[in-house]
Write a sequence for this structure.
C-alpha cells in the first residue's frame, strides 16, 4: 500500500466536508484554517492504524478528519491565547477576523470534530467518544500547564514532559488508538497503539526543542535560536536551569533577564552554555529513549508485517525529520 | 409527581459531578460558574419530558446535566465576547480570572457536556449526539448573528426571531426532545417536543424584551429600561424601527444617536414612542402566538395526562413569569 493513497483520501474528504454555511463569519474561518495545510499527521496515523487490521480503512476517513478538525480547533484557540500573529506563514484567525470570531468559530470546530467522530459503528461509538473526550480534556490541561509555566522559573523536567505529553502527545496516541477502535482490535492492542503514539509524540516534541537550537539552518524551516531569543521554556532551557551552578548559572540567568540584547550574541552565548552543560547529549538521549519506547510499543501490535511497515516507515520519517 | 423531586435530583448530581481537577486554573472556573445557580430550566425540561414516557426518569439525570453544562459553557464564552462584567450578580469568569482561562475552561466544559451525554443507551447514542451537535452549532450561529446585528440598523423582525430561535430556543427544544429520545419515544413525538420547546423559547425570549420596558419595577429583577439605555436591538426596537416614519422616526433615531443623555428621560421618551406605535400590543400578541403554538405542540404529545400536567404546569410558570 502506497501511503499516497491515504493522503489522497484525506485530501478528498477535506475538500468535500461541509463545516456549515451561515453566518459566513462563523464558518469562513474554519475553511480558512483547514486550508492552511500541514502534514495531516494525525488523520494519516488513524488511517494507517486502521489498515493494520482491515482492508476497509476508508470507513476511518471521516473520524480521522474529526481528529484533524479537533487539532485545528486547538490551534485556533491557542493562537488567541498566545497572541500569535501567524500560523503556517499566514495571518491567524483572530488577526484576520477578530478574537470573538476566533473563539466562536473554534467552538463550532469542536462540535464539528465530535460530529465527524459519530461516523463509526454504533457498537464502538461510546468507547471512541469516551476516549476522545478524555483526550480532548487532557489537551486543554496541557495548554493550561503551558500557560502556567510562562510565569514560573522552577519547572522540572518531569513537569515539562508531562505538559507536552498532555498538550500534544496524547492526541497522537489517540489518533493511532482510534484506528484500532474502528477496526475492532482488542483492548491490549489499542493500548499499545496509544502508548506508541504518546511516546513517539513526546520524542517528536523534544526533537522540536532540540532542532530550534541545533538544527541545520539550511534544512530547518524557522530561524535557529528563536526559542532562545524568546526565553521559551523548552526542554533544553529547563534542563540547563536544573543543571547550571556557579558562574554558568549567573551567566544563563543574566541572559534570561536582559531585555536589550543582540540576538545572534544571545543565541551564541546560551548555546555555548548548553554545550558546556552537555544539554545536547542529554536531550538527544531522552529523545531516543522515547522513540525507542514508541517503536517497542508498536512491535507489540500483532498485524501483517507489510501493513506494519507502512505505519513504521511513516513513524520513522517523523522521527528522522530535520525540520 | 412533585417537581421538587426533579430539582433535587439535578442538585444532587450537580454536587456529585467531577469536572476535573488538575490544573486548578482550568477546572475551578467550571465549578464556579456551575455554582452561580440559575433556574436549571433545561435539565428540568429534560427530566419532565423523560417522565412523560417512563418512571425511570433518573437515567436522564446525567445527560440532562450535560445540557446544563453546555448552556453554562455558552454563557462563559458569550461573556468574554460581550465583555460582560457580571453574571448572576457575580464577577464573570474572564473578570475573576482572565480571558485565556475563560476560553480554555469553556472549551473543557463543551467536552464535559458531550461526556455527560454519553451516559445513555448505546442504541440511542448516535441520534442523541447528532441532534445535540446540530443544536450546539445552531446556538453558535445565533450568537454570531447577534454579534453581527450590533453594527446593523436594518435588522428585520424575521431576522431577529431567527437569531433568538438559534441562540436560545433550539436548546430548550433539544432539552425536551432529549427526554423523548432517552425514553425511546417515536420520531413524531420527539418532533412535537422539540417544536414545543422552540416555540415556548421564542415567546420566553420576546417576553424578556417586553419586561425590560414594561415590567413591574417591583417584580422585575433588573433595572427597567436597561435595554433602551444601551440601545440594545430588542424585538421592540426592531419593530419600532420598522414602523416609525416622519417625526416619530426622527425622534427615535435622535435618541439612538445621542451619547450624552439623562437615562430616565431617554427611557421615558423611547417608551412613549413605543406606546405611540403600539409596540407593546404587537409584542404581546407575538409572544402569545409563540406560546400558543408551543402548547399546541405539547398537546400533540401522547402521554398520561397527570404526567403531561407536570410539564405543562412548569411551562406555564415559565411563560407567566414577571421577572
Amino acid at each position: 500500500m502506497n501511503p499516497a493513497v491515504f493522503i489522497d483520501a484525506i485530501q478528498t474528504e477535506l475538500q468535500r466536508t461541509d463545516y456549515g454555511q451561515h453566518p459566513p463569519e462563523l464558518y469562513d474561518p474554519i475553511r480558512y484554517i483547514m486550508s492552511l495545510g500541514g502534514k495531516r499527521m494525525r488523520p494519516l496515523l488513524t488511517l494507517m492504524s486502521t489498515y493494520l487490521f482491515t482492508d476497509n480503512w476508508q470507513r476511518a476517513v471521516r473520524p480521522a478528519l474529526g481528529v484533524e478538525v479537533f487539532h485545528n480547533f486547538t490551534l485556533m484557540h491557542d493562537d488567541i491565547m498566545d497572541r500569535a500573529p501567524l500560523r503556517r506563514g499566514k495571518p491567524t484567525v483572530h488577526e484576520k477576523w477578530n478574537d470573538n470570531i476566533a473563539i466562536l468559530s473554534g467552538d463550532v470546530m469542536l462540535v464539528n470534530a465530535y460530529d465527524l467522530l459519530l461516523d463509526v459503528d454504533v457498537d464502538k461509538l461510546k468507547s471512541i467518544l469516551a476516549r476522545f473526550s478524555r483526550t480532548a480534556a487532557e489537551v486543554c490541561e496541557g495548554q493550561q500547564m503551558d500557560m502556567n509555566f510562562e510565569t514560573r522559573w522552577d519547572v522540572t523536567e518531569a513537569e515539562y514532559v508531562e505538559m507536552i505529553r498532555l498538550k500534544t502527545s496524547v492526541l497522537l496516541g489517540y489518533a493511532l488508538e482510534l484506528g484500532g477502535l474502528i477496526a475492532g482490535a482488542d483492548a491490549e492492542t489499542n493500548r499499545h497503539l496509544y502508548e506508541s503514539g504518546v511516546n513517539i509524540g513526546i520524542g517528536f516534541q523534544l526533537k522540536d526543542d532540540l532542532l530550534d537550537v541545533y538544527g541545520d539552518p539550511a534544512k530547518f524551516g524557522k530561524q535557529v535560536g528563536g526559542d532562545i531569543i524568546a526565553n521559551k521554556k523548552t526542554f533544553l532551557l529547563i534542563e540547563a536551569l536544573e543543571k547550571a551552578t556557579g558562574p554558568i548559572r549567573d551567566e544563563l540567568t543574566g541572559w534570561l533577564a536582559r531585555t536589550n540584547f543582540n540576538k545572534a550574541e544571545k543565541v551564541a552565548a546560551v548555546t555555548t552554555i548548553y554545550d558546556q552543560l552537555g544539554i545536547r547529549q542529554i536531550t538527544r538521549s531522552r529523545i531516543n529513549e522515547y522513540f525507542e519506547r514508541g517503536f517497542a510499543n508498536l512491535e507489540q501490535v500483532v498485524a501483517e508485517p507489510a501493513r506494519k511497515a507502512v505505519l513504521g516507515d511513516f513513524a520513522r520519517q517523523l522521527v528522522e525529520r530535520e525540520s
